[in-house]
Amino acid sequence: MADSIATECSSAATPIHDIQGMTPRSSRVNQIHTVHGIVTADFSKHDQLEGYYIQSALSEQDQDNRSSEGIFIHRKNFPRQLSVGDLISARGKVVEFHGSTRIQLTRPPIICSSNHLIIPTVLKLPNSAEALEALEGMLVELPQTLTITDNTAFEKWATLTLGLQRQFFATSTNTRSTQDSIRHPDSELIDTIILDHNSHTAFPSHSTSRVESPEHLLPKNDHFQDNPLLRTGNQINSLQGILDYQYGQYRLYPLKMPTFNPTNPRPSPPSKSAGTQIRLVSFNLKNYFNGPQFPTSRGVHSAGEFEIQQLKTVAALSALNADIIGLQELENDGYEAQSAIQTLTEALSLKGIRYHYIRPTTLRLGSDRIAVGILYRADKLTPMSRSAHSNSDRLNSSASAPKLSPHNRVPMTQSFQLSGSEYRFTVSVNHFKSKAGCPSKHSKLLDQDHGMGCWNSTRNRAAKQLSKWLINNIAPRDQPIFILADLNSYPHESPLKSFADAQFEDLLQPRVAPQQNYSYVHRSKPGRLDYVLLYSAPPHETDLQTTNIRVNRVGIWHINADEITPPNRAAPKADHWIASSDHDPVFVDFEFLNPLNL
User: Fold this and answer.
1) Is residue 270 part of a domain?
2) CA distances from residue 597 to 170, 318, 424, 450, 482 in whole angstroms, order as listed
3) Closest Cα partner for 489 from 430, 545, 538, 555?
4) pLDDT in tens, 518-562
5) 3-class DSSP state for residue 504?
6) In this structure, are 401 and 491 located in the same domain?
7) CA-to-CA distance for 411 and 85, rounded, in angstroms?
8) 226 shares a domain with 346
9) Domain residues for 283?
10) Largest alpha-carbon pair distance within the chain?
11) Contact status, residue 41 vs residue 143, Cβ threshold 8 Å
12) Which among 203, 267, 182, 283 has a CA at the least distance from the CA of 233?
């Protein structure tokens, strides 16, 4: 036995760098080869990667930085207890697995000797695809502090996207609307990497049970669904592991616990500023569908999941302590006892906060499955006349009202009077068409290379029609006018320019720090889709000026966009506001300075 091991370990073997080659795909695919290498990582368990990473001893390397000296050995039907530092001989077929070159064993591996040491190769970002390909399967160390830029896939795959810094959507921060402004200046360089959890196993979906944290990512038994360290914007350093390429991305399988730095901590509820008379909130609820049949068409999958969603939603709305809440993505199921908005209002009442909701004269608000809504504090505010709306996608039933595209949700517009005063103001709650669900490839509604996404002309037309109607129908009677909305547009896109041209001011843009000016994260990029706009009438048009109010505070409460979405919202603190939606709520506090409309 000893002689056969010695013979095997001293026999000729194919260098790993020859199998890896200098291109993404090996030229030796489907060939049988024997390789020698030192074990750098053991992920051989059934719920892991089912294999080992090995790397050539320094004496066997060719010193050519264009080819990798590491490779994955898939154990297949030949499990063998190996230890990091073992020098092994492995024989098998060369295969490609989702872009990664590996060897699939055709016989058990042989341990030649032990206690060998591999020094990790330093990898810095950004870097070229060629440089990363030349490190595929090798032990690397990333000395830089990296930022969590995306945690969307953590719910299912326990992966995090890391980069040098957060990259905002160009049209969220940049007034240029050309394709050049959207491309990263170093677009040929790779500046992100996936931090993986050493397994291809997905977490169970639609489960309300706690799932323990992935090995090597978080302290064991730390229930990751409620872990504040996983927020986007937090930083990680001390990264060491195996670099590989699979499923279209370079990923790092860590070998030791990373160090998490909570540079983007969870914020406390925003208190009202001194002197504030009215707080307005706009909040997209992420498909608040209350059943009774589950799964619902857009909402959660079960009554138990809805109970958790409602607890979180109520916790968030209670903590905001708003006087008026503009809601988006309510189930459009009417206004009777079992409706979504009635259910939400009753749940808030049980928390001691009594809201009323605006009820239109129609059974439903348009034909979409989701609708907007208005909650208000009846002890402070009195609705003035009926709300303006229409099931024909008009703002009211008058012939002069604009017809908005059916892809935009039907708006709801309501004037209020502050109790015990003559102060009046109007809010219009809106939800414009999203950038998703692009039409056919020849449609003019596709992204026209300006970076504003599909359906931008639909949103821009709605912005012009809405502002015109509000100015012509509401401004002569009531000031000020607020728009509370998920516009599905970033601040420097044409719908916001159209609102600005009509004298509607984005209250958040000049008052929120640039790095905090987001309410949604999409594909690693934060940006703001949610707004409070204020109409400022030109002096020659009316004596009722919005200078009669003072904006005391504006803000974005970052409780959702940065968080992982727990599996079916099943976080341990189910009544907490964290991850209550996928949008962050936005708010404005203001006070009246002089009587209006006397």
Assistant:
1) no
2) 42, 32, 7, 43, 17
3) 430
4) 999 998 899 999 999 999 776 555 444 445 899 999 999 999 999
5) strand
6) yes
7) 65
8) no
9) 278-592
10) 104
11) no
12) 267
